[in-house]
Amino acid sequence: MSIEGRLNELGLVLPEPKSPAFAYVPVVCEAGLAWVSGQLPWRLDGSLPQGKLGAEVSLEQGQEAARLCVLNALSVLKSELGSLDRIARVIKLTGFVASASGFVNQPRVIDGASNLMLEIFAQAGQHARSAVGVAELPRSVPVEIEFVFALKP
User: Fold this and answer.
1) Residue ranges of the domains in the chain?
2) pLDDT tens, residue by residue, 42-52
3) β partners of residue 39
């Protein structure tokens, strides 16, 4: 089954790809890898969740924000590659979690993204990962994630 077929089967809709607001490109492809710049959790209606984990944002809301980051990454990747079926596997996720003082469950937040990768890509969705707590993120979002994918030749 194609990746887009799998997304449909899961009832997932990719948002429109966002153009960068600053001086970077959303995707760089080099040496069989696609490096996806940090993605924010844009919703289909164009809004963003806001707040910090451990304060205004619950663990479940943080996990949902992480899932939205995945969908936004796949959106910009599809725009760059033409087809998500060019993805061979997920290599790495680096998740940044806006955290209130004392919040230490960053890995559980980023599990929202990791679990979605496994749902979409099955075994090819297994990946290396970092989950980092930070004081603030752009636009006051709770989660930002960057990605590395291996591409088919």
Assistant:
1) 3-11+39-151
2) 999 999 999 99
3) 145
Assign domain 3-11+39-151 to its CATH superfamily: RutC-like (3.30.1330.40)
Phi, psi angles (nearest 5°) of residue 87: -80, 125
DSSP letter, residue 38 = E
| Per-residue model confidence as pLDDT tens digits over 18-35 | 999 899 999 999 999 999
Distances (CA, A) of 153 to 30, 33, 74, 93, 113: 12, 10, 19, 22, 26
For residues 150 and 153, give the distance between their C-alpha atoms in angstroms, rounded to a whole number: 9
The three-point CA angle 95-66-136 to 5° equals: 55
Contact 34, 75 (CB under 8 A): no
Q: What is the pTM of this model?
A: 0.97
**Predicted confidence (pLDDT) per residue in 78-102, tens digit:** 999 999 999 999 999 999 999 999 9
What is d(CA 71, CA 112) in angstroms, rounded to the nearest whole number? 12
- CB of 50 within 8 A of CB of 107? no
